[in-house]
Amino acid sequence: xxxxxxxxxxxxxxxxxxxxxxxxxxxxxxxxxxxxxxxxxxxxxxxxxxxxxxxxxxxxxxxxxxxxxxxxxxxxxxxxxxxxxxxxxxxxxxxxxxxxxxxxxxxxxxxxxxxxxxxxxxxxxxxxxxxxxxxxxxxxxxxxxxxxxxxxxxxxxxxxxxxxxxxxxxxxxxxxxxxxxxxxxxxxxxxxxxxxxxxxxxxxxxxxxxxxxxxxxxxxxxxxxxxxxxxxxxxxxxxxxxxxxxxxxxxxxxxxxxxxxxxxxxxxxxxxxxxxxxxxxxxxxxxxxxxxxxxxxxxxxxxxxxxxxxxxxxxxxxxxxxxxx
Length: 325
What we know:
The protein is α/β, with parallel strands linked by helices. The protein contains 10 helices and 13 strands. It starts with a strand and ends in a 5-residue tail after the last helix.
């Protein structure tokens, strides 16, 4: 049984906590949490007997019962906390993005993908049952030609750290785009050779609230084999997530927020095998990898760096041709 600590018990950290407290992650137990809001953090610890509250990250990392830490703080602290966990030999699962830029995350390169000091980047959509079924059935589409990936949801509330680019590292491109870039690589098993984007920023916003990106994917050093289009929007009442793949023998459409997989033109959807919730799935994988198992789907530091490299390229290209409301 490995003891889990959560750094940053906000909205997302609480989601991880719920899975641990519900017993959704075999071999893991929530033992400690940290939150800047001391009143709410202490109240959580009182409700959940056996869970200790620490006011500072350093105190949680020094807790002798913590063997794996989940970092769900804002991105400006990701690298620092990952490095601190590594110095203590504590396994670490860092929420995406790995940092605010590839350059900022580069010192993390070389951290192990398994064992006590592992460092993994949390791309939980790899554990979405619809997307896992899509990846399994991808050969049915024939030679892959293109992908279209999108994420759309409501705007984050006023006062959220996500509205501060200095803390968040960017806007919706870094937030949602990191997910979509990783999905494009994971689904195709190819690398991103080129990435460009156009951004939309409303006058009242400090960072972009919509983006459209174009990716060219292929083997490292080889020609592009697949073109991917990625779109992200924040500020719509719609909460959608969709991937469409097109190949020489047909197409597949994954509505990963709605829970369906289909072939265009077919009346009946494709059956999707059940699976764990994405957060529980990636956490279970991190627990297993901390125990020494080699798990190819667990996103490594290299995966986190690859996503940041593509996002950085998108930002660089958008500065050449800015688009604002």
